[in-house]
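Q: What does the assembled structure look like for these inputs?
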Amino acid sequence: MISIKGFFRGRTIIQPIWVFVIAIFIFFSFMSEYFLSLSNITNILVQTSTIGLIALGMTYVMINGNIDLSVGAILGLAASLAVGLQDYGLTIAIIAALASGMLLGAINGLVVWKTGVNAFIVTLGAMLGIRGLIFLYTGEQSFYSMNFAFADFGASTIGPIPVLAIIFLLCTLVMHLVLTRTGHGRNTFAVGGNPEASIDAGIRLGRHMMINFIIVGFFAALAGVLLASQMGAATPNLGRDYELWTITAVVLGGTKLTGGYGSIVGTLGGVLAIGILRNGMNLMQVPAFYVLVVLGLILITVLIIDKKLNVPSTKEVRI
Amino acid sequence: MASAEQTKQQLLNGRISRAGILSFLSAQGILVFFLLSMFVFSLFSEQFLSQSNIMTVVRQASIIGIIAVGVTVVIIGGNLDLSVGSMLSFATVLVVDLHDKIGPMNAILVMFAFTLLLGAVNGFLIGLMRLNSLIVTLAMLSVIQGLVLIYSGGQNVDIANQDGTWFPFFGRGYVLGIAVPVLLFGLLALLMQIVMSYTGYGRRIFAVGGNPMASVYSGIRRNWCVFSTYLISAFCVACAALVLGSRVMGSQNNVGQGYELLVLAGIILGGTSLLGGAGSIWKTVIGVLILGFIQNGLLLMGYPYYTQWIVTWVIIILAVWLDLANKRKRLLTTHS
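A:
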């Protein structure tokens, strides 16, 4: 039976964030004549692909009950490497960029696993430190891509659909299947739901968390490479604040910070909600600052709705 | 009983002093680290320990320090505040912009009122509505940054007539040879240290952060306690904005961006647990000063400014790790 409570809790097929996405989609279709066109919709997908790719990995980490604040810095480093190492060949540059993301993710995961320090603290430090590494590597310079194949790739299309949008949607599909259909996905929920019980059940908790940190590192690096190819350049400050946008998208998508609950479908909704809001308000010629306010208010509203519907009254003492 | 017997035996054998020193060292590890790093830097640079250099470092650290005092109270109460950076931008832009329009005194009053209002919004959502503090303050970070940009229209603000006003006093003035920012930092830290350690209010905050349910059952009005910590945090941000605005006599509209993380870094380095219920103001003061001295020391040794970020990365993790290792009597975790 479809009850309104179950509906808002995301137990039915359509999650609340998707209702919101559809609502603002219809709203902007009426408000702006340019909004509802194939080119604009693919445009939204390209614009959101950066945050979207990171959010895929972040969903895994957050379902685990961890958080990764260093994704923005990893994105920046990968972008700089992908452009800066092109003298050694494009393939090597891209492989090095992706490897750097996975390596830094592995370091984060290893530290969380072996030292037991809270992931928030570990990745907060990494966020500062990796930004330092970027400045060290680039010498505070922006890099421009001399290889036009790289810059062309960011703008290329297959039929009417941009390649970046296809990569994003493919990755989303794969990560959704891994989360819902594989043992790794099941373990992800188990670890987040009850870490002690998952250890007792024989899950290698530390290794598992580390793999998820490597995944988010990989996606942050991939997003960095794709963003650099979109711009044909990389700046040392690229990716600042992206961790905040990503976490906002994942939380909008219904993933709980406490772990054990969440979905890739919800995250996709959260990412699209941010993308459509930005794009739609832009088309309506609303100054960009209002998007910040609106997004923050939506995040708080989602939290209030979630709180009102989800808290069993017996669990908490009312005073 | 056994431990009492042991202690007595140790006392008789005269071994208590050694054990005492060891336990003191492990408990005050951050202080030891602080003195050690000061010593190392002083080996490499002659100016490092000069009085003028130390005063410069403390003065530079005072803005982060003032904010960190407030955020420490929030963290001891078991919550987080990520919105302080945006709030600092907001307060600084407001006070600088209003200075020429309604005079310094009124500008300061209005700035404090609005910053406290933002703190009250945080407190209402987190304390009274019991929403997750990380997400609420993350959302507020975005909202407040948007408000700053809407208010200023994306323009930077400054004070046109810089000579005919007493406003620079807060950022550039000296009282009894001590810079006013440092004085403000010291006074706020001392005041909050006394409040947290010696008053019933401070004890209640510790209780709420340590075990929220137990604090409710023992009759503490938990929700209002949490609410009040956000007012304190906002008050400290307003003080920091006063210093920042009057030192620069102008403001960019994103001047506070990233401060929330530097503040957190200082607090974590000082040894205050993010879980709540533990920590102290003086530890935060030391943590913030360590960050300041590391930055200064590395610069004096000729390294570029971003080296400090990499060093901070390592020492934050080391500091928390050693603290944890000391508690569990093991260096590494046991699970695979």
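The CA atoms of residues 70 and 243 of chain B lie 15 Å apart.
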